[in-house]
Amino acid sequence: MYFPIRWPKFLNISKEERATLVCVNSDYNRILFAVLTEDSIGIWLEKLCIQIVCHHRDQESIAKHGKNWKLVWKRDSTMVAVLTSKSHLLLYHLETEESGSPLFEQVDSSVSTLKRESSELFVRDAVLPLHMKFASHICVSGEVANVLSLGDELLVACTSGHILRIGWDASVHQDFALDLRDVPFTCGGSCRQSCHGDAFEIRDIQYLPLLGGLSVVFTCGRAAVLMTSSQGFEPKDVNGIWIPDVTDATVTAVNHRYRLVAYGLRSGEGVVFYLDDASGQFITSHRLALSAKDFPDAGSVGGAVALMQWTPDSTAVAVSWEKGGFALWSVFGSLLVCSLNWNASVSCKNLFAVHSMEWGAEGYHLWMVTSPSSKPEERDIILMNFVKSASTVNPGPQSGRQHVLLQGSDCVLISSESDLADSGPGLSWSQDRAGSRGNKHWTVERVPHTYLSINWPIRYSAIDAGCNHIAVAGRGGLAHFSLAHNKWKVFGNETQEQDFVVTGGLLWWDSFIVLGCVNVKDGRDEIRVYPRNTKLDNSFSRICKVNDQVLQMSLSEDRLLVFLADYHLVLYQLHLGGLDRLQDMDLTNIVPHPLCVVSATLAHVGGAKHGILLNVCGRLVLLQQDQAPVVGGAPAGSGAPPPPPPPPPRVGPRWSTPTVLASCVEKVWVAGRSPDPRMPHLTQALWIACGVNGMQVWLPLFPPPNGANGAPTAGSNVPGATGFLPRHNFMAKRIMLPITVHIYPLAVLFEEAVVLGAESDTALCGSNDLFPLCVVSKSSQVYLHPILRQLLCRNLGYHAWEIARSCSALPYFHHSLELLLHEVLEEEAMSSEPIPDALLPRVIDFIREFPVFLQTVVQCARKTELALWPHLFAAVGNPKDLFQECLLQGQLDTAASYLLVLQNLEVALVSRQHATLLLGAALDAGCWALAKDLVRFLRAIDPADAESPPRAALGPPPPPLPHTDDETINQVFIDVILSRHARKLLAAGHLRKLGSFAAHLDFPLDEFLQKERTRAGRVDDYVVALKAVHQDFEWPLPVSMPNVNGETHTTAPTPPEEHVPPQHRNGGGADQSPERGNNSAGRGFPRESPAESESASEDSWWPEEEEAPATPIPDWRGSPQAEAQARHMLQVLGQARCCDWALVLAVMLRDSLVAPLVAPDGTLAALEEWALKECPGYVGFLQMVLGHTPEEPSLPTSGELVPAPRLPRTAPPQEGTAEEGCRVA
Predict the structure, then answer these.
(1) Are 905 and 862 in contact (CB under 8 A)?
(2) Where is the composition biased (Pro residues) (predicted)?
């Protein structure tokens, strides 16, 4: 589809001519443009935007015949007719001087440094001189409303209701003159109305060639279509059909390909009609209206519709308003661009008025005569640049649909999803699709000048299935590009390139390019296949002749479907040797005109059956292949196989009666040949874009498995099920579901449940505030939840569950369920009328089948208004019960979210009770960050508000109250909870967790240990405590180690700490390697720790940039982080005189200086006895400690433990004595 891009171009016209600009008009081929002013006619070449010739009328002619008003071209571009303000027709001849020298001769400078070395600096087009000569003029009686070009005639519509036929030789064909007062008009079946007087004053008129009629707008606001059964449009065969419900029309535009008639209204809207072949009446298709939500007061700001212009390919319509502004809609009403939102504040003074507009070649430029709405005399001609979807003119390719491909006049834009530099040889250019859906950037590839210099602009483009190669075709030949190697290939022989013109599109078949073309040299139509790996040359191609021009092509595996201009649909089989014709079908009875076939797609609608999808004037027609009857077969019970039957005659497959699947169809997407067995519903679905009506999906319905009791299982597959329930003929095999989308779809990702699209965006920068910088950005939308909702609405819960189960591995599956619940909740809770069959309970029961139910409900609640919460939890259940369920399932983060819900729905006392329960669970699970938040939450609860109504009823929270004794009680209550948990950790020997707990929750650990050193800090069984500490710090028990000679022995005694290298003290230095430092259990120790190299985060202790240790770490040591944390806890325990656990840590760290000083009597001997039996690695260390009795300990250094006199275990501790216990100097 069409999207504006970059800034518009301004034609270089003199100031005097700009003030008198009237209109712009292109010839039939859109190569030449006529710029009409009040007194001159200029002919411009669109490709180079240069003026070729200009004819100025003299003042005598202007005074006699009037000023220029309208201009029309003859079909062969040899004449133009100018309609003046005094109803005179001035005819001019245009003659090209073939023998003359070009108008623009490029001569290089004689200076070598100024010579042009690049071919892009040369214009290869020979712009020949064009002469304009006055031929004749015709005076038309009465005022002329419009003039049209009908082949070799001019159709002149007078405001009086007369329609004249005038030849280009200035002859008036009186026999074909038509008076609308003599034409019978039909309105609603057989009812005939005859109108007189002002009812037939014509305001605008357009020609419908494929319908053989004229669309007329009268000055009274009514609209009608004049139809005839004769080819010559004879007056006696003309009858009129009134357009229903149109009373304020201002302008009309016709769409030939889709057989649509559009009318602009005084209200600023547009309405589009189509002809119903059954009733012969025009029926409303859709309306072109801006939403009041996005564009408030758009009708009063823009005014009545002034101009309407369809694109050359009939896929979009541009609309402008009298007061200013323009918009662009797709063929069936999807809004693409609107200039009313280009400015921050919409006002008439910031709008630009459009006085005339015309589409350029292939629709890449929109020529407009514009002026500021407040200054209509300051006129300019601008060229608005556009890019469009490649599928707009080339709908056949189904490969490469996971990318969005846009094409401009000289470049292609690919939705970039990975860098080319990351793709090595043999790798796909796009490998990680799911990780880059949000990428807004495009890969822009410009077609080389060597090709575009004579083949501008691009007409067709296609990308292969691997998204590695692009093929483009312009006015002649083709070229292709490798994204991986950044290299273009063009024809080496320019003559071969210009000998054919691509007309039926481009397709990629593996490494081959398939195209339909016209052989200009031989005057025949062909299908050509060019290999990608060889040079572009006809000697390497495979050519198949066809009977008529190729209009549409589609490919499925090795089957090629071709639609020709003679109404025939031909099926081919592709192979390396060429093409084999399989079948030929005549579609004369289905297709009204060959140009009405928008697309012909070869698809597999289920099983091995082939299907053909024809988009005829926006109606999707299905031709389905009938199943071939089974011939032969062995009789039941026969022992020997039957003799082989004779070969049947070669007869093509039969096709079923055409079936219309949908109307207002713009695009169609089908999946590949082999559907994914994990996602059979989505990968076999048919997607349809329907403009303003959103999208529709034709979804397959598979029968449920047969349970043990013969009934279908709803919710899980029964292990005993051996088959499926039999499908009866009356049971639907597919269902059509409407899907609402908020983007314009350009690609469908079947396996990812995502629709890709593009949208237009603007940026106001520079001095020109009327025309901003236009950019195109990618957009996407997940379509899973709309499908689930539609299936649940139709009581197809089993199929919804199957689809959801197949998509449960998608990263946004939980978000899709959340959107499903949120949309249904808002719609039903805000409904002003009772809903007889509410969908919300059904949706809740559906989401309950998945493990993310609790998380989905609370996330939906937190993103919904508080006023809707009672409605939600009335259907889901009490949030207190859901909170308890989260605790039972261990979903603590989800339970914290429910706590916020309870805070708004219940009194503060209830929130406090549940927060206390969650705090205990978080502490037991080691979720320190959550526990810290809960502590802050509990401290923020004002005890005075414990019995206050919930916040949802009172509105904003009350102001904080001054500090009271109740707050002190609340603080003590929280401290008791934290102290209880710390006591639990200390008694269990979880010293590492105790350190993390204190670091994250700012717990006073020193004070706590001093209080608990004779209670929870006592150790009764040192062997069990040592094993618990080893497990807590993930510190391996020492085992027997081989010496250098290969003999095994117990671990050598550990030397005193002063003899240990510095890198092995306190977990420091060279042992800090990232491979051994990823233990997160001790994360969060305080950064203010006295121990060297200790902090609150393991990552900050051991930076990744430090090198690995030169000396390997012994097997008895843990990670550097664990050692640092253990030494820090040893320091803290020593300061708090908690000697029992200090001994356990000292033994684990093999600290021979601290262990004998803090060990109670007999403890080391008991540990030695255990080590001799179970852990020989500790024997040497314990023996050394038992034999070590320091006489006078030296002065301690910073961070060392210094012993104090030990007291007997039976003596009670003496508080306040500095000499007792163990301490840190």
Answers:
(1) no
(2) 640-651
Cα(81)–Cα(65) distance, rounded to whole angstroms? 13
- Classify each residue of 849-871 as buried b or exposed e, where b means 16 or more C-beta atoms within 10 Å of its C-beta: ebebbbbbbbbbbeebeeebbeb
| Polymer length of the chain | 1225
Average pLDDT over residues 1025-1029: 91
Band of residue 1218 on the pLDDT scale cut at 50, 70, 90? very low
- Pairing status of strand 380-389 against strand 2-4: antiparallel
Q: Both tokens of residue 1035?
A: 């510190």
User: Helix 1120-1135 crosses helix 1139-1149 at what angle (to 10 degrees)?
Assistant: 150
pLDDT digits (tens, 9 = 90+) for 21-73: 999 999 999 999 999 999 999 999 999 899 999 999 999 999 999 999 999 99
Q: How many Å apart are CA 1023 and CA 1166, to the nearest integer? A: 8
Amino acid at 658: P
Q: Which residues fall within 8 angstroms of residue 776, CB to CB, at 6 or more apart?
A: 3, 5, 387, 406, 413, 442, 758, 759, 760, 761
Handedness of CA 810, 811, 817, 819 (dihedral sign): negative
d(CA 1143, CA 608): 77
Half-sphere exposure of 790 (CA within 13 A, CB side): 17
Burial class (CB in 10 A: 0-12, 13-18, 19+), 742: exposed
Q: 1201-1202 and 352-359 as β-strands: parallel, antiparallel, unpaired?
A: unpaired
CB 506 within 8 A of CB 400: no
Structure tokens at 511: 């490494």
Q: Maximum CA pair distance of the chain?
A: 136
pLDDT at residue 306 is higher than 90: yes
Cβ-contact 330, 691 below 8 angstroms: yes
Q: Answer yes or no: are the C-beta atoms of 490 and 479 closer than 8 Å.
A: yes
DSSP state at residue 1056: P
Report how far residue 804's alpha carbon sits from residue 813's, in angstroms, rounded to the nearest whole number: 8
Measured between its terminal Cα atoms, the distance across the chain in Å is: 79
Type of residue at 285: S
Pick the closest to residue 542 from 569, 570, 572 (CA basis).
572
pLDDT digits (tens, 9 = 90+) for 529-545: 999 999 999 999 999 99
Which whole-number Å values give the CA distances from 241 to 76, 161, 226, 517, 1031, in the listed order? 32, 16, 6, 40, 91
* Angle, in degrees to the nearest 10, between helices 853-862 and 879-889: 130
Is residue 1209's pLDDT more than 60? Answer: no
Q: How far is CA 966 from the centre of its chain?
A: 55
pTM recorded for the entire structure: 0.81
Q: How far apart are CA 1196 and CA 1203, in angstroms?
A: 10
Q: Mean pLDDT, to the nearest integer, of 865-880?
A: 92
Contact 539, 491 (CB under 8 A): no
- Decide: 556 and 398 in contact? Cβ < 8 Å: yes
Residue 444, amino acid? V
Rounded to the nearest integer, the mean pLDDT of the chain is 81
The 10 Å Cβ neighbour count of residue 1042 is 9
Exposed (0-12), middle (13-18) or buried (19+): which is 344, by Cβ within 10 Å? Answer: exposed
Q: How many helices (H) and strands (E) does the chain have?
A: 27, 61
User: H/E element holding 274?
Assistant: strand 270-275
Any idea which of 355-369, 782-796, 810-824, 1106-1120 has the lowest mean pLDDT? Answer: 1106-1120
The residues, any chain, with a CB within 8 Å of residue 256's CB and separated by 6 or more, are 208, 209, 210, 314, 595
Spatial separation of the C-alpha atoms in residues 800 and 379, rounded to whole Å: 58
| C-alpha dihedral, 689 to 693 to 695 to 699, nearest 10° | -120
